[in-house]
């Protein structure tokens, strides 16, 4: 199966070479890898150039968005710049962060999933980060049916059905919800242990604290789903203020009548899906 990869990169000189080396070690090599240098001010571009000179699979594109490392919009804007460089001659497409080390058989196993079950639209493994003692541990608890945005693979049919990725906080949740809306399944493989070199959120600007709640509004969750989801998030992260930040972001978006990311029909499906999952976990 033909795989294309897009890697948005902003000031990643500490990690990028490890990521690119892990791609070169893949038992199923990708056909094309586009590395997007997004307004980097460190040695990121020099590293990209050193790889594009030696390996024809890598391509570089420069773009200049914001200097702020805001979750959601910045990374997807860079991803879409990379997407413009690619044709549609692929079987699956992967968005990969520049601070990830993939297992050597990652793409081979992803291809096996897509080839074996055409209903699967999104697949991936799980992230592991080093703890204080230097041991690789599975990172903060996530639902087992969720693929982290740092290493998501999409079948071509699914990617087209969801009309690409939304340039907003919450893009890596709304993509899975829309995939389900269009009849696709999400598949995760616990055997695929991805090494994440930078802990989540370390580079995010403080301005980002309200974006999660705004994203819930834009996904048409409604007040009560947002309330319950925010309580759960605050409890999991052991951060009480996360609940209040989320609710403030949601109510602010409601007051401003921020445009939705999904249609009314898609929103109805999303709310029904969320309520069903919540009720199932209570049983």
From TrEMBL:
InterPro entries assigned: Glyco_trans_2-like, Glycosyltransf_2, Nucleotide-diphossugar_trans
Gene3D superfamilies in the record: Spore Coat Polysaccharide Biosynthesis Protein SpsA, Chain A
The Glycosyltransferase 2-like domain, residue ranges: 5-145
PANTHER family listed in its UniProt record: GLYCOSYLTRANSFERASE (PTHR43685), GLYCOSYLTRANSFERASE 2-LIKE DOMAIN-CONTAINING PROTEIN (PTHR43685:SF2)
The protein, known as: Glycosyltransferase family 2 protein
Organism encoding this protein: Pelagihabitans pacificus
Lineage per the UniProt record: Bacteria, Pseudomonadati, Bacteroidota, Flavobacteriia, Flavobacteriales
């Amino acid at each position: 199966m033909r795989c294309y990869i897009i890697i948005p990169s902003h000031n990643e000189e500490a990690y990028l070479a490890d990521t690119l080396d892990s791609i070169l070690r893949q038992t199923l090599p990708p056909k094309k890898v586009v590395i997007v240098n997004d307004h980097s001010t460190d040695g990121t571009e020099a590293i990209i150039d050193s790889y594009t000179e030696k390996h024809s699979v890598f391509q570089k594109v420069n773009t200049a968005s914001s200097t702020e490392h805001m979750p959601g919009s910045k990374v997807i804007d860079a991803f879409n710049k990379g997407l413009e460089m690619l044709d549609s001659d692929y079987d699956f497409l992967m968005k990969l962060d520049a601070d990830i080390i993939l297992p050597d058989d990652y793409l081979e196993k992803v291809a096996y999933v897509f080839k074996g079950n055409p209903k699967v639209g999104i697949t991936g493994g799980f992230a592991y980060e080093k703890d204080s003692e230097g041991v690789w541990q599975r990172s903060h608890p996530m639902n087992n049916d969720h693929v982290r945005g740092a290493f998501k693979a999409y079948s071509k049919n699914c990617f087209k059905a969801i009309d690409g990725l939304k340039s907003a906080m919450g893009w890596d949740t709304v993509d899975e919800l829309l995939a389900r809306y269009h009849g696709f399944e999400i598949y995760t493989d616990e055997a695929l242990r991805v090494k994440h070199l930078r802990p989540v959120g370390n580079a995010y600007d403080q301005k980002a604290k309200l974006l999660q709640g705004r994203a819930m509004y834009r996904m048409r969750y409604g007040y009560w789903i947002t309330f319950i989801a925010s309580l759960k998030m605050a409890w999991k992260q052991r951060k009480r203020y996360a609940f209040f930040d989320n609710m403030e972001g949601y109510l602010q978006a409601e007051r401003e009548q921020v445009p939705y990311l999904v249609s009314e029909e898609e929103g109805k499906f999303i709310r029904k899906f969320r309520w069903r999952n919540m009720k199932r976990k209570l049983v």
